Amino acid sequence: MKGMSSFGRWLLLGWVAAGVASLPRAAYADDSEPYRRAACDAPDHATRLQASAAAAGDDQAAAYWLDGRTLRWPGKPADGRYRLHYSEHATLVAARGRKVAGADGHMALARAAAPLPPALAERFRFVPAGADLVVGAADAKRLPHWLRGQVLLVQEDAAGRVLDSTALQLPGALDDLYAAAAGLPDLSASVAGGATTFRLWAPTAQAVAVCLYSSGDAPAQAVHDLVRDANTGAWSWRTPDDLSGRYYAYLVDVYVRGLGIVRNRVTDPYSVSLTTDSRRSYVADLDAPALKPEGWDAAPRPDRVRTQTDMAIYELHVRDFSLGDASVPAAHRGKYLAFTDTASAGMRHLRALSEAGMTDVHLLPVFDIATIPETGCVTPDVPDAPPDSEAQQAAVMAVAARDCFNWGYDPYHFNAPEGSYASDAADGARRIVEFRRMVMALNAIGLRVGMDVVYNHTTTSGQAATSVLDRIVPGYYQRLDGSGVVERSTCCDNTATEHAMMAKLMVDSAELWARHYRIDSFRFDLMGHQPRAAMEALKRRVDAATGRDVQLIGEGWNFGEVADGARFVQASQLSLNGSGIGTFSDRTRDALRGGGPADGGEALVKEQGWLNGLVYAPNAMADAGRPREDLLKAADMVRVGLAGTLRDYPLHTWDGRTTPLREIDYKGQPAGYASQPGEAVNYADNHDNQTLFDINVFKLPRDTSAADRARVQVLGMAVTAFSQGVAYFHAGIETLRSKSLDRNSYDSGDWFNRLDWTYRDNFFGTGLPPAGDNADHWPLMRPLLADAAIKPGAADIAFARDAFLDLLRIRASSALFRLDDADEVKRRLRFPNSGAGQNPLVVVGHLDGAGLAGAGFREILYFVNVSPEAQRLALPEEAGKRWRLHPVHRSVRAADARSLRHGAYDARGGRFTVPARTAMVYVLE
């Protein structure tokens, strides 16, 4: 068998396991063209060429390669006898008490004579102590070849009998041996000068070939071997022909732990487009005129974001935006092209937001998604049932796996647009052109386009059909635990962006979107699972590639196997200060909403927040003896967000102290963590958890009127609009969006994720939400959903919408709401009515515009009153000033007449009357 090429190896096996078919002898006995084309067209995505023997230790990888010569076996004594055993065809048997059988060779290992170099020790600080071992200099030359087969680390007794054995985790060795791969410019199918080059990084593969197809469903026309570069571990094949418009897949022969030598037919992880359901990759030159909409190169870009704090972001799902919009042609609903229907109700809404001051639309994931059928998806038949019925969710969930909806946090190919949003998923060109048409349409109404990106996990790993990376370089791209099992703390199969080539894929991908699709900013899902260094490298690359400042924000949550810097310095809230990268701040979010996002049971109701009644308007489940101190603390936490969550901002706190925000406690962490205001992203509502309207349904007193519920919603939007930092708004927050109390609508179908641009319905009371995440709370939900008095009318929705537009106009009217320097915030922002003597029902902010370009006003004074009653405040320092309501409030089209009619200012004593549940702004012009 050693004399046979890797494509000709076979072993007659009589079973199928783990989705991997065995090869019958007659069909694959040679490397003939028909044989190889058959592999390209076989129904199974993988074929086992040779099964691994039942080797003790092969089911785990408890040892680590630290670099190209050094390894560690945690918990083992350094003075033991250790060997590496190798088999090209995965025939090793390492039974305890017996000598290793089936080996093609072995290497004796020496005890490491010196401590690890500091950089190596730092990288692998999470690996417990044990035996640090070194491969001899002569043997080290064989390692690159050995790592392409089966290798076991064996602890032996003096007679060479097995005491213990394990496989090894490869990333440390691969990053060292193939460090040059990080500099490869094109890991993809690239077209240049009329020629086409295919390049794939697969350093542990035994052979790689590319299958070529004339279309997305035609049989293979040809199959070509790729040639391996020993320096980078990349394989390539070049043809002098321009193969643009053709489709391809790779055949990768590779050792898979626990299976043996497997031939994987796999798409390109760098695919720029694909055919239906991602079955084949698409060859494309993204600079080709045929892939550019008319006017693409000359289309103007919005130039309205000077610094990160200028951003006001609208978070939007492509399908939600237009699916229910009857003013959009039926063929465009739920698609990229809906954004090109400029006269539609949805586009008129976005245009109004843009004109008022919204700067960016952030699209929930629009890269290739694994869990949305790109053709033939099912639309559930939802019955007309009572508002508290289980019937609606039962109908939705019966087809959830086959319907057309998903949030999209299930990445399949990071560099390709999602096909279900294209007019024809089978045509690899369509999704590219139509995505660009969407960007052009949004840019044309003054909105920049941002992407929600998910590099922290893959949908699957191992040999699963939707696993791409792990079927090309098994055990490299995913983050593994101490036994070699993929970590899943992110919900799915975690990636390891601390490894050089996974970091490269992330950086290369972001550059592609920014350069070829004009993406202006990125929101990173679970960014805290990525290294700060990788994020900073990404920032440098995308800025250099585009010649502009591409803003980065993300979820900086600190949890899982990487928590508290266990493996690297994270891109998390507390670790990113000074980087200029923004993270979502949960400080004010939780203070406004009450409790936390994981609350359940009675806590979902009784843990009220500053917006919805904490202490001052208790609901039926609230603790009767809740101390006023809790309300005071919540008001201070609202001020934390208004001050940009800045570490060094000094606040006069409820207990009479003046302290920097970093010394205020927030659930055991510093309340202030940002070095600059652009590092904080402020929000009261986003796609995760219950909408703001729905959380207030739980927490506001039951008898709160629909009109007052709308006013409370506006107050939440006002705090975000007035806060220093990035302003972030969930689509529909301004139309009182409800998901019928669903706490997690990622797979709840179109029914629970609707938007209505006619402003007649917010979809509250459209059935109990899906049982999976909500059934435990159905008893709490039923009476609420059945209460018709809670549901807003068209007038309530219109009020919230128009009040939101006013808030955007106010934020856009002055650079004082968008200060980009921490020292400027400290100098210009103060909080009257703070400290020990404060009225915690009203938060007041004063902004000094003296000498600031773009301030628009000499001074600004804003008020947010959450009380159901008017509040009167004496601010002696404001006495004698000629305060007037902001011009937006004085306009004839002002949404909230309450400020003008019932707000008052007495200059003699600096006394202000703030109407009930009102946000209002005064200015000195």
Written account of the structure:
The protein has 925 residues and is α+β, with helices and mostly antiparallel strands. Helix content is 23%, strand content 21%. The chain contains 23 helices and 43 strands. The strands form ten sheets. An eight-stranded mixed β-sheet has the order 9-8-5-6-7-4-3-10. The chain has an eight-stranded parallel barrel with strand order 20-21-24-27-28-29-34-35. Strands 1, 2, 13, 14, 17, 18 and 19 form a seven-stranded mixed β-sheet that branches. Helix 11 runs parallel beside helix 12, helix 16 crosses helix 17 and helix 17 (706-722) runs parallel beside helix 20 (794-812). The longest helix is centred in the C-terminal third of the chain and has 19 residues, at 794-812. The protein is globular and about 95 Å long. Residues 1-19 and 22-30 have low confidence and may be disordered.
Secondary-structure topology with pairs:
Layout lengths: L20 E2 L10 H9 L4 E6 L11 E3 L4 E5 L6 E7 L17 E7 L6 H6 L6 E6 L1 H4 L2 H4 L3 E7 L5 E5 L1 E2 L1 H7 L11 E4 L2 E7 L3 E9 L6 E6 L1 E2 L5 E6 L7 E10 L3 E7 L14 E2 L29 E5 L1 H6 L21 H12 L3 E4 L3 E3 L21 H8 L12 E7 L10 H17 L3 E6 L3 E2 L10 H4 L20 E2 L5 H17 L4 E4 L7 H15 L4 E4 L27 E3 L1 H8 L9 H4 L21 H15 L7 E3 L5 E3 L4 E2 L2 E2 L9 E3 L9 H8 L6 H17 L3 E5 L40 H4 L3 H8 L8 H19 L9 H7 E2 L11 E7 L10 E7 L5 E4 L9 E2 L1 H4 L6 H6 L1 E3 L4 E4 L3 E7 L1
Parallel strand pairs: 1-2, 3-10, 20-21, 20-35, 21-24, 24-27, 27-28, 28-29, 29-34, 34-35
Antiparallel strand pairs: 2-18, 3-4, 4-7, 5-6, 5-8, 6-7, 8-9, 11-12, 12-16, 13-14, 13-17, 15-16, 17-18, 17-19, 22-23, 25-26, 30-31, 32-33, 36-37, 37-38, 38-43, 39-42, 40-43, 41-42
